[in-house]
Every structure is written in C-alpha cells, then in structure tokens.
Amino acid sequence: MGDATDGSALHGTVKYRALITDFDGVHTDNSVFLDQDGREFVRCSRADGLGIEMLRARGLRLMILSREENPVVAARARKLKMDVLHNIKEKLPVLDEWRLGEGLEWSEIVYIGDDVNDLECIKACGLGVAPKNGHPDVLSAADLCLDKKGGDGALRELCDYLIKNDLKA
C-alpha cells in the first residue's frame, strides 16, 4: 500500500462509520465499452464486492457518490447493496447534506475518488483515499494512496486495510 501524505489520519484513533466511493475510476478502470446501439458497459472487480460486503457486516454505511448519470451506477449500487447518489455535479454539498442526515462528523467518513471533482470530498473527510490510477492532484491530496487501480481491486485493498486496522464503527 502506498504511503499516506498525512500519517495522522492513519493512527487508528478515529473510528470510521461510513465509506463513500466515486464510481468511474474507483469501481471501474475508467473505461467504457459501447455496443452498436450506444449502450454502455463497464467492468468491475468481484473482489471489490466481497470487500464491501465485509464492511457492511461491520456496520459501515456505504454509498456511491458519482457524477456519472448512466444507470449502470445504480445497477452496481443495487448489486452491492450500497446507497447511491449519481448524476451529481457538485459532490461536497450533497455529501454534506447526506452526512448531516446520517448524524456523522467529517472525521468519521472515508472517501475514495480518483479525479479532480473528488478533491473537495477527499480533503473534507477523515480519510481521503486515491486508487493508483488517480489524477496527480488527487494522489497528492489523498491521505492514503493505494497500490491497486480502480476496477482492479482498489476497493478491496481499501476494505482490507480498514478491516486490518480496525477502523470501523
């Protein structure tokens, strides 16, 4: 696992109660497949799904927060039994509203994202995480940079990290 830019977030003193994920570039490798009718398809890692299931069993709240409007985002969220807010242009105000509704502090939230539209959330949350394929600005802002790329087990790596370090509710 890559080094954290701010080790203070990794000492295990905070118990995280929620994991918020971007979709493209985190659940996927940021690629899209198109068929002749223009339908989009993406590839996701099944290992990520098992990691998410293990976090759910430990009581973490789980949500996908995505700019993407394609129904594939909601379909994957249903499959993983995660809440989903998609077609969101400005993520931070929406995440703040959700956070308040859930009675959470920023410090209790883990956020993983890969692109510049995730920067505000990465900086606001208690643990900001970036997959290996993250934009350079995101990689430099993240508290934790993963060894795996999005769509290639990054979420599972993060889930295993949280479980191993007992950073749960």
CATH topology: Rossmann fold
- Counted up, domains total 1
Question: Number of DSSP strands?
Answer: 8
Strand content: 15-25%
How big is the Rg?
A: 15 Å
In which order are the strands of the major sheet placed? 5-4-1-6-7-8
**So what's the overall shape?**
globular
CATH class: Alpha Beta
Rounded average pLDDT: 89
DSSP helical segment count: 6
Name of the CATH homologous superfamily: HAD superfamily/HAD-like
Largest sheet: 6 strands, parallel
SSE ordering: EEEHEHEHEHEHEH
Structural class designation: alpha/beta
Ends: how far apart?
23 Å
Q: State the helical fraction.
A: 25-40%
The CATH architecture is: 3-Layer(aba) Sandwich
Note poorly predicted spans.
3-12
Question: Any overview of this molecule?
Answer:
- The chain is of the alpha/beta class and 169 residues long.
- It has a single domain (7-164), classed as HAD superfamily/HAD-like (Rossmann fold, 3-Layer(aba) Sandwich), CATH 3.40.50.1000.
- The protein has helices at residues 46-57, 72-80, 91-102, 119-124, 136-141, 154-164; strands at residues 18-21, 33-34, 40-41, 61-66, 83-86, 109-112, 127-130, 144-145.
- The strands form 2 sheets. Strands 5-4-1-6-7-8 form a 6-stranded parallel sheet.
- Strand 4 (61-66), helix 2 (72-80) and strand 5 (83-86) form a beta-alpha-beta unit.
- Helix 1 (46-57) packs parallel to helix 6 (154-164).
